[in-house]
Design a protein that fits this description.
By secondary structure, the protein is mainly beta. It is built from no helices and eight strands. It has one domain.
Length: 82
């Protein structure tokens, strides 16, 4: 599994850029293949067909509404629009 990295900070060699992530036709990335930058706000699609807002903590997913029985299957960045 790979993790997206920030080009401005030297991090783990296994990290890639968001532009290099393979997304499906709806803009979702596979959570088993690649993880977002830790603490970057994302939408998470679970195995229970729910969409949650949260982040990757570096070792697991976090969301106040994510139940322990739910597994994150896909994720998409939550873009900030001004």
């Amino acid at each position: 599994m790979k993790q997206v990295g920030d080009i401005r900070s030297p991090q783990v060699v296994d990290m890639i850029l968001y532009a290099e992530v393979a997304y499906d036709e709806n803009g979702w990335a596979d959570a088993k293949e690649v993880r977002p930058v830790p603490f970057d706000l994302v939408y998470m699609k679970t195995d229970k067909e729910k969409i949650r807002v949260g982040w990757w903590k570096g070792d697991n997913w976090f969301s106040l509404r994510l139940k322990p029985s739910e597994n994150v299957l896909r994720w998409r960045r939550k873009e900030e629009h001004s």
